């Protein structure tokens, strides 16, 4: 008991390292059932449940903007331990390079385009929740659309932050499963989520529609292009490849960077405006 408490305190104090699963293949899986995390990243994946909850408040009649805002700012499903919640607002306002420590061109490109962290997603979300700024007197469906899509963007960006952290940790010799691989697992968890699909196996066929993760967003767009590469299914292979190349003696920095770039490409394809026109 005393020892356990000490160990738990140690985790709470550093907060940075994962608890690698023992045995290694015993971790809870994500919605796809094929990515193999080596850390328990359930709470990280749970942020997608907040996205789903906000969507359900915005589906009420009349739309419940107040409760949607409460979930955005205070969180609901995703705990960081010790009574602290991980919130979508925290994610949106995160400096995703940590003052340039982690390279993340996906995020720094967005930052230079929009000019400030809050201007990327947060200002739009708040304006549409509050009926202010660019959302003032817009229709409910306009505000709902902006909020729902922006939240997917926030979670996608946060996945790139975790990938950047994993790249940095790997390059700095932190290749134990609770180190770089933990950051990579977190990125996969944010991207895929862990809601059980209401139909199907979580990767083949049509998108189940209840995952509310960036992965499902990619999947829906894949369905518009039945003859093209299935980006959501490809992403799972890239994520497993990145993870394998971060673990201990198997560490290979070039391969990890290639996996990170592969994920950037998946995100960019999903956001191609040509693709958006068909939805
Ligand atoms: C989470 O949301 C549910 C409603 O779906 C609510 O009943 C519950 O109190 C909320 N929990 C927290 C911690 O905000």
Automatic annotation (TrEMBL):
This is Uncharacterized protein. The keyword Signal applies. It holds the Pfam family Fea1. Keywords: Signal. Residues 1-18 form the signal peptide. It comes from Symbiodinium pilosum (Dinoflagellate).
């Amino acid at each position: 008991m005393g020892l356990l408490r000490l160990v738990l305190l140690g985790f709470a104090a550093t907060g940075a390292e994962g608890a690698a699963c023992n045995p290694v293949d015993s971790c809870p899986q994500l919605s796809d059932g094929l990515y193999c995390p080596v850390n328990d990243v359930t709470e990280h994946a749970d942020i997608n449940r907040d996205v789903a909850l906000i969507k359900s408040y915005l589906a009420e009649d009349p739309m419940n903007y107040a409760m949607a805002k409460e979930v955005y700012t205070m969180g609901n499903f995703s705990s960081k331990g010790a009574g602290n919640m991980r919130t979508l607002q925290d994610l949106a306002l995160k400096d995703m390079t940590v003052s340039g420590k982690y390279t993340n061109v996906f995020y720094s490109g967005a930052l230079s385009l929009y000019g400030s962290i809050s201007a990327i997603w947060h200002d739009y979300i708040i304006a549409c929740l509050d009926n202010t700024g660019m959302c003032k007197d817009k229709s409910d469906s306009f505000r709902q659309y902006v909020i729902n899509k922006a939240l997917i963007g926030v979670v996608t960006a946060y996945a790139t932050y975790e990938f950047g952290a994993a790249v940095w940790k790997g390059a700095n010799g932190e290749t134990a499963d609770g180190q770089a691989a933990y950051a990579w697992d977190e990125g996969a968890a944010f991207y895929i989520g862990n809601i059980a699909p209401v139909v199907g196996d979580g990767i083949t066929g049509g998108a189940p529609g209840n995952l509310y993760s960036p992965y499902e967003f990619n999947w829906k767009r894949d369905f518009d292009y039945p003859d093209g590469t299935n980006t959501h299914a490809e992403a799972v292979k890239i994520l497993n490849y990145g993870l394998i190349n971060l673990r201990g003696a198997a560490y290979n920095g070039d391969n990890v960077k290639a996996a990170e770039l592969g994920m950037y490409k998946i995100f960019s394809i999903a956001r191609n405006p040509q693709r958006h026109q068909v939805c």
